[in-house]
Amino acid sequence: MATDDCEEDVIFENSALYKHLVDAGVTDIPVEKSTKSSEPKEDVENESVAAFPPEKPNDVQTNMELLKQVFRKLKEFSSFDLFIIQMYCHFNCQILHQVAHSKSLEDDDKIFLENFIVETENVGKALKPQTFILCCLYPILIFLSLYLLCLYSPVAAILIMNPNICLFRALVKFYILFLIVLSLGILWHILNLKHTTSCIKALVQQIEESYLLFKKSLRLIQEVELVQRGFTLVSSQMTIKSGQSAYKYNRLCPELRKLVFITARSNMLFCRKSTNILLNIHPLVEEVDKASTYLAHIPLEDYGPSLQLSEDNNDNLSKLTDDFSVTALKAMMYLYNMQQSELLRRLALCFCINALPEDQKG
Question: What is the full DSSP assignment across 41-62?
Fold first, then answer.
C-alpha cells in the first residue's frame, strides 16, 4: 500500500492534473520531469547503429598485411635488391669504359654515348658505399651462421633429433637452405656478369685487332704499289702509258687484296646483322632506337652491287671492284668501320640505365 500511495502522489509536468492545479492557483507542486521525448532519438540512433554494425576486418587479410609489412622491413634491412643493382652497375661501368675507349668507335658515336655513360657511372658512385658494406655483410653473415651452427652442432643435433621439437627442426633446415640458396644466387649473378663482361671485352679486342690488321694490309698494298710505280716510271724501256696499263692488269698481291676485301665485306655484313638482332631482342627507348640513327636500316641495294653478290662469286666481285683496287678496299673498310662502330655503340647502350625502358630499370 505504501508503494501505491507513492505512485499516486507522483505528478508529471505534462499531465492534465498538473494543469488543473496550476489553474487553481496551487504553486508548490512536486513535479516529475518527463524524459520520454529524448528517449526515442537515442533509440533511433541505437537502432541505426545496430542495423549497420561496423565491419570487422578479416583475419586472413590482417595476417597477409602483417606478413607483407614484415617482408618489406626484412627486404629493406637486407637490401638484396640494392646489392644486385650495384653489382650490375659495377660490371656495366666496366663494359662502358671498355667500349667508350675503344679505337674502333667513331667520334660521333663516342659523343652520342657520353651522356648515357655519365648517368650510369653516377648511379654506381652513389650506391658504392652502401654496396661495400653489403659486400662485407653478406659473406660475414653466412660464414658466421655456418660457424655457429658447426660450433654448437651437438646441441643442434640434440634439438633436431628430438621429435618433440618439430618446429625448431623445420626452422633450422629452412635457414640452412636459405643460406645455401642465397650464396648460390649471389655466386650465379657474379659469374654471369663476369662472363658477359669478358665476352664483350674479347669482342671489342677482336674488332680492334682485326681492323688494325686490315689497316696494315692496306698499307702494305699501297707501299707495294708505290714501289711498283717508282720502278716503272724510272725505267727507260717503258713509256708512262704502257706502264699504267701494265700496272692496271698486273696488280701485285692479288690474294691479299681479295682476302682483305672479302673479309671486310663479310665482317661488315655480320656487324649489320648483329645490330638488327640487338634492335629486335633488346629494344631501348624511342630516342635511341630511331630508324634514322642506324646504318643497319639502310637497304643493301643502296650500297651498290658489290654487297649484293655472294662471297663465292669472286669473278664478278673482281670485275666490279677493278681487280680489288685500293679505292674499292678503302671504301669497303670504311663501311666496315662505320658498321662495327654502330654495333659497339648499340651494344654499349644496352648497359646504360637511362637508355632502358621503364619496365627494365632496376
Answer: HHHHHHHHHHHSPPPPPPHHHH
Burial 14-25, CB ≥16 within 10 A → b, else e: eeeebeebeeee
Is residue 52 situated within a structural domain? no
**What would the grid cell of residue 209 be?**
685487332
CB neighbour list of residue 189: distance below 8 Å, 6 or more residues apart: 84, 87
| All cell numbers assigned to 272 | 649489320
- Rg, the chain, Cα only: 44
- Start-to-end Cα distance in the chain: 90
DSSP state of 12: E
Q: If we measure between CA atoms, which residue out of 114, 9, 62 comes closest to residue 345? A: 114
The answer to whether residue 56 sits within a structural domain is: no
Q: Does one domain contain both 305 and 206?
A: yes
Domain count, the chain: 2
pTM: 0.63
HSE of 29, CA atoms in CB hemisphere, 13 A: 20
pLDDT along the chain (362 residues), means of 10: 49 67 68 50 47 53 72 59 72 85 87 79 59 58 65 60 60 72 81 90 91 91 82 51 48 85 90 91 83 80 77 74 86 92 90 76 57
Contact 34, 15 (CB under 8 A): no
Distance CA 339, CA 268 (A): 6
CA dihedral 349, 354, 357, 361 (to 10 degrees): 110
Q: Is residue 299 within 8 Å of 343, Cβ to Cβ?
A: no
Under 8 Å between Cβ of 269 and 307: yes
Pairwise CA distance, residues 180 & 221, whole Å: 61
Give the torsion through C-alpha atoms of 54, 59, 62, 67, to 10 deg. 180
Strand partners, 32: 12
- Domain range for 19 is 1-31
Check the CA dihedral 245-249-253-259 and report its sign.
positive
